[in-house]
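Listing S7. Sequence submitted for prediction.
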Amino acid sequence: MFDGSVIRKLRKEKNLSLKELSSKSSVSIATVSQIERDNTDPAITTLYKLCKGLDVTIAELIGYDDNTDRVVKKRDRKTITLPDSKLKYQLLSSRMKRNLEMVLVELEPHQEDRKLVTHKGEECGYVLQGSLTIILDNEEIHLEEGDSISFNSTIPHRYVNPTDEKSMSVWAMTPPSF
């Protein structure tokens, strides 16, 4: 379960009221308040919006330990999973340099949430297993195992898996957003 007190702590550190964070993130005051009180678990699109409003990464929201280790052991990977979601992110890169981020994205079959996200930077992804559909604004691009794609992250986008098979892909993102 996501810890909403982290958002409250970051909001207060930045001297933002609920109304100011709501305005900066385009997330309603009621939703921000519910998340901060742990009355609801946010969708990944909501987390992205809150990150934008707080000017932080998702890693900072989930309390990722900012250490200088070069190696990330499988057992120690930071994983983001949200309730009622068929999407899992695993941070593969250490936080040492903070210029590049590597993420393993697992999409369960029929993960078809099409709420688009945007953030600054670029992304490059490679499909390891199954297939994946990338929505880039109004375009849908279907990728098979072994295919790759790169794009500017300011283009509204989303990864979906409308198939009956699990999809796994590796993504490089700059600047880090998790």
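Caption to Listing S7: primary sequence and predicted structure tokens for the chain studied. The CA atoms of residues 39 and 91 lie 26 Å apart. The two ends are 17 Å apart (CA to CA).
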